[in-house]
Specification:
This protein is mainly beta. The protein contains one helix and 51 strands. It has a seven-stranded antiparallel β-sheet with strand order 15-14-18-12-13-17-16, with no helix packed on it. Strands 2, 44, 45, 47, 48 and 50 form a six-stranded antiparallel β-sheet that branches. A four-stranded antiparallel β-sheet has the order 1-51-46-49, with no helix packed on it. The longest helix has 6 residues, at 395-400. It is globular and about 95 Å long. The protein starts with a strand and ends with a strand.
Length: 582
């Protein structure tokens, strides 16, 4: 007899393994698309001048756009730097300067040492910050003139040291001069849990009892960037610094502060009507403030402009926003609001469109053709005119092994070629994103897997989706079939092939694949749901009939890519006979 091993597409991983009977239960680096199981595309590092592009720090926020000359740009920001990359050229450091000035007779050297001491009262720097010196004079007879970028080591509130490329030839105290520019103070690579005495209200939790796993109370999020294009220019806002910057495509210049814009913001959004929304504006967690239409330097409401603000009626804190066909969707820690352009005198009207659907991080949402989708702290939500929860068939797996302390690192990217939204997230025990979950919004299927990605942009501006890893490398995805040593696979839950005292003795497997020999298949059998499990194989599928030898009442099987290629798998069949355990 022939037993079809026909399973519905997608992974089901809620509840116990036996609850996934007749479904795919585990997977890595595969997708179900147009009725077949296949590997996802691989990845390759982006290069410039034959060298791999590596950015300094962990990128948490990215944006791709084309300028008015149709040149492709990629921007990415992390806790240390903000970068712009023009097509395939080397990245340009466009990190804003927080302070500039001139230091005179402020530099000291020691003969034979490369360390230069710098005196600057109330410099406000942190160890690891960057200072750029220019237009300097020699530090006495030391043979050193500071010029270029240096990493700071703080000595005290009024002094720090930098390391020069050559040793001083003399000891000099308080000599030389230079113009200085301090980059933004470095942010947080990791979220910080505020657990010290006094960080919570008295009696906010039970004495001697640990906070629940999902608690994010008292956690300061990792540093992220909100990036958007203002025409052909780039707008940027860092969540922990709160100011809005504009960069006008000149790689010799840094992003410049929009001085009239509100500060203390957590994010920004450029609307379809060409307003800039400052979210959680001025440090008010519920306030949305916008500039005049087409003028991001005018933020003061008057009778002759359309600048304005609105305070949302929400118990939560505004985290981010998405442009949708319905208007500007504002996502908070607890709910969702829609801002719709009305024109003067009110300019924008706001309506709460969902409750109990707070977003888990500033990067956890993407815009779809018919709305937006995002990850919450225990599920997924879709806005398509109204907010509704997604029926996620892997939510138990994702959220039962989730590092809520680093939830601010969750990031989402759209893969339009395959109608997928991909969330990368940190599993429990990992401080960095090391897993992913995929929702195919056309076929409504889910898949899971493992990789380390911290931000990304979809294909469109660039030929392939572009994603970043924690080491700062930039990758083209859906490119070839290299997975850095990992192997695509999919494994099923149990499939009943025998009943009562009857078992099935399998003798052959009849494959259904695009090209034989590109995958292997292995089987696990049991005689009872909690009985001993026996593994058989793997078997290389090399002909239309592949011999196998096993027996049992239930079987699960695993398909593994035997080659790094674009294989396809449909529905296998087993050929066997009924028998008994004796």
């Amino acid at each position: 007899m022939y037993i079809p091993l026909k399973l519905p597409p997608g992974v089901y991983k809620n509840g116990t393994q036996y609850q996934s009977a007749g479904r795919w239960y585990d997977a890595n680096l595969v997708r179900w698309y147009e009725g077949t199981l296949r590997p996802i595309g691989g990845w390759a590092k982006r290069t410039a001048s034959s060298s791999n592009i590596q950015l300094e720090g962990v990128m948490r926020g990215s944006c791709a756009w084309r300028d008015n000359s149709a040149i492709a740009w990629l921007a990415a920001g992390g806790s240390k730097k903000l970068y712009a990359i023009k097509a395939d050229t080397a990245p340009a450091n466009i990190t804003p300067f927080r302070e500039t000035g001139t230091l005179t007779n402020a530099f000291s050297t020691t003969s034979g040492s490369v360390v230069v001491s710098v005196a600057d009262t109330s410099h406000g720097c942190a160890t690891g910050d960057t200072v750029v010196f220019s237009g300097g004079t020699a530090i006495g007879a030391s043979g050193i003139t500071l010029s270029g970028s240096y990493v700071i080591t703080v000595t005290n509130a009024n002094a720090y040291t930098v390391t020069h490329g050559s040793a001083a030839t003399a000891t000099v105290s308080n000599g030389g001069s230079a113009n200085y520019s301090y980059e933004l103070t470095i942010g947080r690579v990791d979220a910080d849990a505020q657990v010290g005495y006094g960080t919570q209200a008295y009696g906010s939790w039970y004495y001697g009892v640990p906070r629940p796993q999902k608690s994010t109370t008292g956690i300061t999020p990792a540093t992220t960037w909100a990036l958007d294009n203002w025409g052909e220019y780039l707008l940027a806002c860092r969540n922990d610094e709160g100011k809005i910057y504009e960069w006008q495509l000149n790689t010799a210049n840094r992003a410049a502060l929009i001085s009239a814009a509100p500060t203390g913001n957590t994010s920004i959004l450029v609307t379809d009507e060409r307003f800039v929304f400052a979210l959680a504006a001025g440090g008010n967690p519920r306030k949305v403030q916008w500039c005049d239409q087409e003028d991001n330097t005018d933020w003061t409401p008057s009778a002759t402009n359309q600048a304005g603000d609105y305070e949302l009626a929400t118990p939560g804190k505004i985290i981010c926003g998405e442009r949708t066909r319905f208007g500007a969707l504002i996502l908070t820690t607890t709910d969702a609001h829609l801002g719709v352009y009305q024109g003067p005198p009110f300019i924008y009207g706001f309506e709460r469109v969902g409750t109990g659907c707070g977003i888990i991080s500033a990067q956890a949402s993407v815009t779809l053709e018919n709305g937006a989708v995002w990850m919450s702290d225990g599920g997924f939500f879709l806005f398509d005119g109204a907010v509704r929860p997604l029926n996620c068939e892997v939510s138990d797996y994702v959220f039962a092994n989730f590092n809520y302390g680093q939830a601010s690192k969750v990031n989402a990217v759209l893969n339009t070629d395959y109608f997928e939204v991909i969330w990368s997230y940190p599993s429990n025990g990992s401080s960095e994103c090391d897993r992913y979950v995929i929702w195919n919004y056309r076929e409504n299927t889910w898949s899971i897997g493992a990789w380390a990605r911290t931000s990304g942009v979809p294909a469109g501006v660039f030929q392939y989706p572009v994603l970043f890893d924690p080491s700062g490398y930039v990758y083209d995805h859906e490119y070839g079939f290299n997975y850095d040593g990992a192997t695509p696979y999919a494994e099923t839950g149990p499939i009943e092939i025998g009943s009562g005292d009857r078992i099935v003795v399998a003798r052959q497997v009849l494959p259904d694949e695009k090209q034989q020999g590109q995958v292997t298949i292995s089987f696990k059998t049991r005689f009872a749901p909690e009985g001993t499990e026996t593994t058989h194989g793997p078997y290389t599928i090399s002909s239309q009939y592949t011999d196998v030898r096993f027996s049992g009442r239930q079987v699960s099987f695993k398909v593994t890519g035997a080659q790094l290629g674009d294989w396809r798998v449909g529905n296998f069949r087993l050929e066997g006979v009924t028998g008994s355990k004796r």
